[in-house]
Design a protein that fits this description.
75% of the residues lie in helices and 0% in strands. By secondary structure, the chain is mostly helical.
């Protein structure tokens, strides 16, 4: 699965009536390309609600939800440098040579981060982090520690998966990406059902569900990759893949921007852990954020679309119209969730929230209504910057969003009756301030005069 000394297998004769890499001509073309990616992101974001639903049906749901939320957030922090390899793959891989270089950089990065995470699990620092920083009880802290141990193989698995999926997205074979994610979700569902039936620790069940499901997905796309390498065109190789060093220089600012962005989860949880009722606040925000991501995740692939499918002004116009329609639709859906009986069905029946956690989720749901619009265009503008090779600008926008968010959170932490409200506010500020920073950077730094549109738009 992971060998890079493979020659591409010539693709089978295609029966498709249209070249999958052809320009997007209308909204129907955009839908055909985007639907598998949208379903992929929807299924990926559905992972956390599925796990939360399972944990809430086991013993000590509040404590186990808090333990899983903290372990998951820390694992995301360690793995975040690998999340950008799918986008890097879309932007850089055009042939066997660039595939090998990007795969090697991804392997080095993912392997190193996995070892760091494993070291943290067995270091004295984890006691301080779980007990002091996040105010977990002794039982919850121990559960979080063992959950993080199960999470430690994820960085290298996510790195490989991202490189493979990026090739499929660039060549237009997005259905392969979608089916891989479906296999992941199916595996996760099986693990959760078995975990609930056997009554094991909730946080361990959640971590195991993520581990086995990502293994299944990575194996699937890894076994399918060789045939798609034959669809690449080595003549289009980017200047950013001339050497391993050039790949690192292109990818590192973008990967670091994702690390900075995912640190927002740690910072929000840190602020919530300092409120009067930390475990209730953490559990409430975890529920709300999982639903927000589930709906807005459909729009996360706007970044991939901006890189791979904005090669002309006509394509760009089609993409913008398509994303606007999608964003408005899901904003309306989230608006409905803010009202009864929909809020009770989503948070109570589907996710299993009870008591104060259910009441707080219903009260704060409206705070998350703008999320789909903010996410759609934040990711679209990030994609434009990556396409232009300006990955350092994505880092600058991420830093801006996190700094502003944390400042607002610290200042407003004690200003609300419901402790989780400050988490909802920080979430809005994060997405809004980063979007504004991206717009400003796009206006301040234009492509060099005299360059063709293709040269200015392609790394």
């Amino acid at each position: 699965m992971t060998s890079v000394d493979l020659e591409p297998i010539p693709p089978r004769p295609k029966k498709s009536r249209r070249d999958r890499s052809a320009p997007l001509r209308n909204l129907a073309d955009a839908w055909s390309y985007y639907l598998p990616l949208a379903l992929t992101m929807l299924m990926m974001s559905g992972s956390t609600p599925i796990v939360n639903s399972g944990i809430s049906r086991l013993e000590n749901p509040v404590g186990q939800l808090a333990a899983f939320a903290v372990a998951f957030t820390i694992s995301i922090f360690f793995s975040s440098l690998t999340f950008g390899f799918e986008t890097t793959s879309v932007a850089l891989i055009r042939g066997i040579d660039s595939f090998k270089k990007v795969w090697l950089v991804a392997t080095i990065t993912g392997g190193t981060l996995g070892l760091i995470e494993l070291t943290f699990v067995f270091s004295p620092l984890q006691v301080y982090v779980f007990r002091e920083l996040f105010s977990l009880s002794a039982e919850s802290a121990e559960a979080a520690r063992w959950s993080l141990l199960l999470f430690s193989p994820l960085p290298i698995l996510i790195s490989w998966r991202g490189v493979f999926r990026g090739v499929f997205s660039y060549t237009g074979h997005t259905s392969t990406v979608g089916f891989g994610t479906f296999l992941r979700l199916l595996t996760m569902g099986v693990v959760v059902v078995v975990g609930v039936a056997t009554g094991i620790s909730g946080s361990l069940m959640g971590a195991g569900a993520f581990l086995f499901s990502i293994i299944a997905e990575t194996l699937y796309v890894g076994l399918k990759i060789r045939r798609r390498l034959g669809d690449l065109h080595a003549s289009e190789e980017s200047k950013h893949v001339r050497s391993l060093g050039s790949v690192f220089r292109f990818a590192f600012p973008f990967l670091l921007s994702i690390l900075v962005g995912t640190s927002s989860g740690l910072l929000i949880n840190l602020v919530l852990s300092r409120t009067l009722h930390p475990e209730s606040a953490l559990a409430t925000f975890s529920m709300l954020r999982s639903v927000a991501w589930f709906l807005s995740s459909v729009l996360m692939s706007s970044q991939t679309m901006a890189i791979a499918r904005t090669r002309s002004s006509q394509e760009t116009l089609v993409v913008i119209h398509f994303l606007a329609i999608m964003a408005l639709f899901f904003t309306f859906v989230f608006l409905l969730i803010g009202f009864q009986p929909f809020s009770s069905v989503v948070f109570g029946t589907l996710l299993g929230a009870t008591g104060d956690v259910l009441d707080h989720c219903q009260s704060l749901a409206m705070w998350f209504v703008p999320t789909p619009l903010l996410v759609a265009f934040r990711m679209y503008y990030r994609g434009l910057l990556v396409r232009e090779g300006r990955t350092s600008s994505t880092l600058a926008s991420s830093i801006t969003g996190v700094v502003v968010m944390f400042g607002v959170g610290v200042l407003m932490a004690d200003c609300f009756t419901l402790p989780a409200t400050v988490g909802a506010l920080m979430w809005l500020v994060l997405n809004g301030s980063e979007l504004l920073a991206l717009l400003l950077l796009l206006r301040l730094r234009r492509a060099p005069q005299g360059s063709s549109s293709d040269e200015a738009a392609t790394p």
